[in-house]
């Protein structure tokens, strides 16, 4: 008799693979079942037209309400019928009441994507990357997919193929066009419709900042606001850096990127347990980041787009790091040279390295004392933030016109088919 032994590590791995395989099969069967029911219930073009939602806005997380709220308000003013679908049960949108826009929680994770994959709609608007790459597939009964940006920075800082399968991109500024066109050329993709629209959430933040007065306490507040993933400052510098920040005696606010709580869960939990809140150290998870940005005297980050929000809106200094930075997981891996974000932040902030991190207090004090270069800030604004104060209105106009054009074209095709 042969005794077979599988060590615990290998057994755990095999068990994980088995569970993943079963889950994948269940997911595929569920999608096919939903699709079969959908197609069985909608047999003719006329029936599909009757079930079609004119405009769908999809948010995979409640934090994107700051991007979509001004667009929804503009669409509502225009009388455009739409459905706002969210994957967050506590999305602030669900508490809003529009005359022409219905808000709906469609489930979390795969449940949400299963619904989206079977949508019957004219125009779908989202800020979620990786359409037709992972779980979220293009529905054959959706006419047009539009991507709106929720942050400053490079289009090529999406994960690989993140924007490839959208029909149109509402770009924040002209610098981004070259990146998109170069990736299309390399991948032999049909050209997307590119519109220079700006950033609705940043317009709203700018309006809120007018007349805002910070309460002076006489103490400096340092905001540590990293991105997520392997390039995050929390991953690269770890707990020793937080120790040095605490040693400065300044108020320290740590605001991890919301995705960190999923992608870097172990790291974040370890750090939060090691550094519980005190009167000098706070962890911030507010859905709306306006108050925490307004309260800080300086921001420390890596290459997160929030650095530009901080500089553009509050005209305050930043310390950034490119320590160990790699382009591997992102679309910019396919592009030569530095990204716009990295090359531009070098002109706007001071760089944090493993060497000068030992003297972080001195770097903070110097940065606050010198402030930001207004000429460089204005140049960066021009390059990355167009149509200031008017982006939501322009995006709403585009959506309304696009849907009307699609409907007119389909009606013409139906007329021709009847001849």
Describe it for me?
- With 419 residues, the chain is of the alpha/beta class.
- The chain folds into 2 domains: 48-199 and 388-418, Rossmann fold (3-Layer(aba) Sandwich); 213-384, Rossmann fold (3-Layer(aba) Sandwich), CATH 3.40.50.
- It has helices at 8-41, 45-51, 65-77, 110-117, 175-187, 200-209, 233-237, 239-247, 260-263, 265-274, 290-295, 306-314, 340-348, 360-370, 374-384, 391-418; strands at residues 53-59, 82-86, 101-105, 121-126, 142-148, 168-171, 193-196, 221-224, 251-254, 281-283, 298-300, 318-320, 350-351.
- The strands form 2 sheets. A 7-stranded parallel sheet has the order 3-2-1-4-5-6-7, with helices on one face.
- Helix 3 packs across helix 16 (391-418) and helix 6 (200-209) packs parallel to helix 12.
Task: Give the low-pLDDT segments.
Answer: 1-17
The count of domains is 2
Identify the CATH class of the largest domain.
Answer: Alpha Beta
End-to-end separation: 78 Å
Order of helices and strands: HHEHEEHEEEHEHEHHEHHEHEHEHEHHH
Structural class of the helix and strand makeup? alpha/beta
- Residues in β-strands, percent: 5-15%
From the alpha-carbon coordinates, what is the Rg to the nearest angstrom? 24 Å
The neighbouring-strand order within the major sheet is 3-2-1-4-5-6-7
Major beta sheet summary? 7 strands, parallel
Helical stretch count? 16
CATH-defined architecture of the largest domain: 3-Layer(aba) Sandwich
């Amino acid at each position: 008799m042969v005794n077979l032994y599988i060590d615990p590590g290998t057994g755990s791995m095999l068990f994980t693979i088995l569970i993943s395989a079963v889950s994948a099969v269940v997911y595929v069967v569920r999608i096919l079942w939903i699709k079969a029911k959908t197609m069985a219930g909608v047999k003719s073009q006329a029936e599909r037209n009757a079930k079609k939602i004119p405009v769908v806005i999809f948010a995979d997380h409640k934090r994107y309400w700051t991007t979509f709220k001004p667009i929804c308000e503009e669409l509502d003013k225009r009388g455009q019928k739409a459905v706002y679908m969210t994957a967050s049960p506590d999305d602030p949108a669900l508490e809003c009441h529009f005359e022409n826009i219905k808000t709906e929680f469609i489930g979390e994770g795969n449940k949400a994507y299963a619904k989206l994959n079977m949508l019957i709609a004219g125009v779908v608007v989202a800020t979620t990357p990786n359409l037709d790459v992972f779980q979220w597939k293009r529905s054959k009964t959706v006419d047009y997919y539009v991507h709106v940006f929720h942050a400053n920075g490079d289009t090529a800082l999406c994960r690989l193929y993140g924007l490839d399968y959208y029909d149109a991109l509402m770009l924040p500024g002209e610098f981004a066009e070259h990146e998109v066109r170069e990736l299309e050329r390399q991948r032999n993709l049909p050209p997307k419709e590119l519109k220079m629209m700006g950033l609705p959430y940043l317009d709203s933040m700018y309006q809120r900042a007018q007349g805002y007065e910070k309460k002076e306490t006489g103490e400096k507040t340092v905001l540590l606001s990293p991105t997520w993933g392997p390039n995050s400052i929390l991953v690269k510098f770890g707990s020793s850096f937080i120790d040095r920040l605490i040693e400065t005696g300044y108020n320290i606010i740590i605001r991890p990127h919301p995705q960190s709580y999923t992608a870097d869960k172990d790291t974040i939990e370890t750090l939060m347990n090691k550094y519980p809140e005190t009167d000098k150290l706070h962890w911030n998870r507010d859905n709306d980041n306006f108050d925490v940005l307004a309260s800080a005297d300086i921001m420390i980050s890596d290459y997160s787009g929030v650095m530009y929000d901080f500089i553009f809106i509050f005209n305050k200094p930043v310390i950034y790091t490119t320590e160990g930075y790699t382009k591997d997981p992102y679309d910019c891996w396919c592009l030569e040279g530095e990204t716009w974000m990295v090359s531009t932040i070098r002109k706007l902030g001071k760089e944090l390295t493993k060497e000068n991190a030992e003297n972080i207090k001195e770097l903070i004090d110097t940065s606050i004392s010198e402030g930001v270069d207004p000429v460089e800030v204005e140049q960066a604004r021009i390059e990355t933030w167009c149509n200031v104060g008017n982006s939501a209105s322009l995006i709403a106009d585009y959506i309304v016109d696009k849907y009307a054009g699609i409907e007119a074209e389909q009606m013409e095709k139906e007329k021709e088919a009847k001849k």
